[in-house]
Structures are given as structure tokens and as C-alpha cells.
Amino acid sequence: MPDEKEKPKIKLQFEPKNPEYELIETDEQVEKAIKELRKREVLAVDTEATALDPYNTTLLLIQVGIPEKAYIFNHQKVDTSPLKSLLEDPKRLKLVQNGKFDYEMLKVNADITLNNIFDTMLAERILTTGFKRENSLEAIALKHLDIQLEKSVRYTFGKTSTLTKKQLEYSALDVLVLFPIFKIQFRNLQKEKLVRIAQLEFRCLPVVAEMELKGSYINVKKWRKNLRELREKRDVASARIQEELRPLYETTQVDLFGNQVDVVNLNSPVQILEAFRKVGIDLPSTGVAVLSRTDHPLAKMLLEYRSHEKLLSAFGENLLSKINPKTGRIHPDYMQIGADTGRFSCSNPNLQQIPADSAFRDCFVPPEGYKFVVSDYSQIELRIMAEMSEDPAFMKAYKEGKDLHTLTASQMFNIPEEKVRHDKERFQAKSINFGLMYGRGANSLATQLGVSPDEAKTLLNKYFKSYGGVKRWLDKTAKKAVRNGYSQTLGGRKRWFTSPDPSDPSYQRQLGHVERQGKNTPIQGTSADMVKYALVYIYDKIKEGKYEAWPIHTVHDEVVVEVREDQAEEVRDLVEEQMIRAARVLLKKVPVKVDAKVGKVWEH
Question: Which of 384, 310, 324, 295 is nearest to 353 (CA)?
């Protein structure tokens, strides 16, 4: 990857301590500034507002920069609509930092839709994936230009009625530094052959911004009903555990109402370990993996209790508090490159952690007169592994349209496919199929399957006997990641690794980590690339067809689109076609299957 210590020689066209800017506060100044800006093919864009939420903020400034000067438009004093045609011109490149924020701020508060974007934050993330994340403008400017930005100034906007010199210099620098940063980053993207993946991320940015702006509607009444039912299940599970343990404790304490007091705090690992010792089991910890391997009714009851408690803490009233009072919807934050594989992450709230089989998903509904199109790739990561490994059995299975898990079980256990039990042999085969993509070994699989490590090794050996091509590819890919210091997706995305020092006592553990991630990233990362292509294609086709439809959510290999009811079937076909088109960009040998459904709830 680009040398972190090397500072490229870039001649600045501005003075960092005394940046040139013009504050635009009259219509005459607007006209003159627009005339000058139209002469440039590359512009830098930024905004300043009183809050982060585009629906509940006051837009104060719109900064548009050229390499030597910043034009600061006072949105509170002048009509900024003349900027619309300039900033929406698809032939003009716009440099931004965290452009998703500025896209949303401008769309909601100035009716300006940015396009043809180069985002320095995303570019930096692409160039440093796998290493420490320092993607703020402050960190990037210091790293590449040795310029220290005073970012604390941002918190002073909206606090006074007039703009200070410090605020204006801060606003000017935010756009002026983007030009030299862009030059350095673009050169590095070219050097690392990452221009194509950067273009994909930049094209995806408006789609992600629109997903956040649209948000999701939640049936609050149904959500609270689910919470009540969950609390009841949790309390029943808790009561069963207390009754099971009460005879082992010498206490008959009661509360003020005559109810027996709990003998164990189920959220205290110390007390839980003591309780297990009382039933004759000495556990090393109270982790899920340990409890899953423990053959005792108490362990099973505790796992049930925890599953209810976890859902309550993750999806309680706190999530409902995120509903925007102006829109009546939840508008989560999507991070485009949330994981080093390139996958999205979601926060505030994290809608991606809602289980596919959870009743909470049924609470996400479209408004009256609309429906959802919920679509996902079928076994896409296994298809990617088939493409990359070119294992004959894998390839044949998908070309013949067979269920790979059932086929795998049939070959591993030497039984006809029709005799494979869904909850036994197929489950074991499925666990191995997916486990291998995450670099999991025999011990990890043993825990999931509830078998001994030796039995897990035997299953793995049977698996690799059936799929020798997969094993060869996994081994080769792991070694390649260590040798090159990075792994790569079919889309060209790179994830770098820090090479472990052989003299380090933890060398083998670190090496194992690199090898596991080296195997996983090409598969999971290619899936992430594919979904981003799909989002871009779906969004473009919806706009082109002038459908009343919007992508509103994505989780891993799934895309959710909200659409007007009478257009739902047509848009379902569109979504399916574009997802297959996206897959074809990356997969050339293995057929792809997309499951797309029309419905009134978000169901998998």
C-alpha cells in the first residue's frame, strides 16, 4: 500500500494560516461567484449547519471552493438556488469529505442534489482498509499535508448572530484542503489499481444518502406488543431457573409482598459460575460457546433467558426513541465501508442486527398504498467461493440448480440426497460450508455442531475429500495474503494486513488471524461489492423509469425497496434483473439466483 511515512510533494495554492475566501451575502455577489465557478471543472463542496440531522437543523453556509479560493455562501442571507444547476451538473466533479452528510443537508435544506462525487473520506478508507481508521478531515489533512485544522470551531456555529473571522477561515480551509488531498489520493488509487472500486463507492454514496433520508416506518403498537411478549418469556425463563436453583440455597427470603426473592442474579457471571458449581459443574466462563457445550438443563435454560434479554436490550423502547418527529420514520446511519471486507455497517439504530426470523422485522411496514420488495442473493458467498476455487463439484451443483448443503451432506455421509435430514446432516454440512469462509477450524465447528473436536476433524476431512478444489483454494489464498500483505476481492478491493513478527511470542496466533481474514475477505468482500453495484443499478433504473420507489435498507446480501402498490410487481422484476446484472459484473462462471418478494412487511 502507499507508504504512510512518505509525504508527497504537493504545492498548495492557498495559505493555510490566511486562506483566501469571499463571504457571499448579496445577490450581486452570488451572480459574480457563480460566473467564476462555472469556469472550473472541479469544485470542492462543504456545508455548515446548526445540527447533524438534516430534518432538524438550520443550514448556515454552503462553501464552494476552487484550488486558490473559497466562496462562502451565507444561506441565511442570500438565495442559494443559483448553485443548483452548478452543483447538479454531472460533468463537473465535486470534491467532498463525508459527502453523505453534505448530500443530505443540501437535498433537504437547499433542494440541491449532488452528483459526480469524489469523497476524500471514502478514498482514504479504501486506501487504508485493514489498518487503523483515521478518516476525519483533520487526520487526513495532517497526514498528507502537515496542516492542523482547528475542528473545534465547528461547534461554535449557530451560537452567535454574526459569523466570526475564525469561523470563516475554518469554513474556507475545509474546502481548500480537498484539492491537494484529492491529487494525492487519486495518484495512490491509480498506483494500487483501486480507481474502479473507488468509483463504485462514489456512485453508491447518493444511494446510501437517499436510503438514510427516506428511512423506515415502524408499527409502534406492534413493536410494543412484541416487547411485552418478550418480557413475559424472559420472566418465565428466569422463574424456571430460580425454582431449579432454590433448593440448593439455604434461604427463604421474601420481599415486602411475600414473594420469594431470586437466589441468583442471572446477569452476574460470578453468581452463575457459583450456581453451576452447586450442581456439580465447574465452568471456565459463562460465555455462549461454553454454555452451548454444557449438557445440563440449567445451561439450556440460561441460554433461553439470555436470548430474550438480549433482544429486549437491543430492540427496546430505545429504538423507538430514534423515530424522527418530523418524518415519523427511523433514519439510521449507514457506513458504506463499515467493515474491512467492504460490507456496510448500520448504527443509530443498528437495523442490521435484527434477526431475519425475529418478530421485530414484521414491525417494519410500508405506509398505506405502498409495499416492500425484499430481495436477496441465494447462497451468494458459496457461489463466490465456487467461482474463485473452480471446484468441479461446487460448480456442477450450482449449474444443475441443486441445493449445495444437501448435496454436501449427501457426499460427506454417503447417503442419497432425499435421505438427508434437514436438522442433522444438512445442518452440519451447512455449518462447514459457511464456517470455512470465516476461516473456522475444527474446535470452532465442534462448538457449533455440539460434537467433539475429533468428530469435527473427521467431518472436515470428509468435506475436503468431496471438495478438494475448495481446500486447495483456501490454503493458497491464506498463504497469498501473508505473502502479499493484502487480500483482494473480484471487484479489486484490497484489505491490507500487518505482517506478524516471527520473533513475537504470539506469532502463530497472529499468523492464523491473517490467514483466516485472508480467506474470508475475498468472499465476503466480493459479496459487498456486488450489493453496492446492485444498489447503484437499482437506484438508476428506478430514476430512469420514474417509479415511485426507493431503496430504504440493505443488510449483507439483501436489499429492501419501498414502492407504490400498483408498481410493486414491475419494480420486483426490475430489482431482480439489476441484482443479477450486478452479480454478472463479478461472477462469470457460476449462475446466480435472486429471491425477490413483494409484501407488506420486511420479511426475509
Answer: 310
Q: Are the beta carbons of 99 and 205 closer than 8 angstroms?
A: yes
Nearest to 302 by CA among 241, 390, 221: 241
The 3-state secondary structure of 366-409 reads CCCCEEEEEEEECCHHHHHHHHHHCCHHHHHHHHCCCCHHHHHH
| 22 burial type by CB count under 10 A (0-12 exposed, 13-18 middle, 19+ buried) | middle
Three cell numbers, residue 424: 442433522
Q: Give the whole-angstrom CA distance, residue 460 versus residue 62.
A: 59
Q: Residue 284 CB: number of other CB atoms within 10 A?
A: 7
- At position 167, the amino acid (one-letter code) is Q
Beta bridge partners of 531: none
Strand 345-347, strand 333-335: pairing? antiparallel
- The torsion angle over the Cα atoms of residues 424, 425, 426 and 429, rounded to 10 degrees, is 120
Find all residues with CB under 8 Å of 300, minimum gap 6, and list them: none
Side by side, the strands of the sheet bearing 370-377 are 549-555, 558-564, 370-377, 594-599
Q: Which mean pLDDT values do the consecutive 10-residue runs of the chain (604 residues) have?
A: 55 90 96 96 96 95 97 96 96 97 97 97 96 90 92 85 91 97 97 97 98 96 92 91 82 57 83 86 84 84 90 86 94 95 94 83 94 94 93 88 84 82 81 73 72 80 83 92 95 93 88 90 96 98 95 94 97 97 96 94 82
d(CA 596, CA 573): 8
Q: Which distant-in-sequence residues (6+ apart) come within 8 Å of 190 by Cβ?
A: none
Q: DSSP character for 419?
A: G
What is this structure's pTM? 0.90
Burial of 388 per CB tally in 10 Å (0-12, 13-18, 19+): buried
Q: How far apart are CA 602 and CA 372, in angstroms?
A: 7
Q: Do β-strands 42-49 and 59-66 pair in parallel, antiparallel, or remain unpaired?
A: antiparallel
End-to-end CA distance of the chain: 39
SS3 598: strand
Cell numbers of 50, please? Answer: 446548526
Question: What gap in Å lies between CA 180 and CA 97, rounded to an integer?
Answer: 13
Burial 529-554 (b: 16+ CB within 10 A, else e): bbbbbbbbbbbebbeeeebebbbbbb
Measured CA to CA, the distance from residue 73 to residue 62 in angstroms comes to 5
Amino acid at 496: W
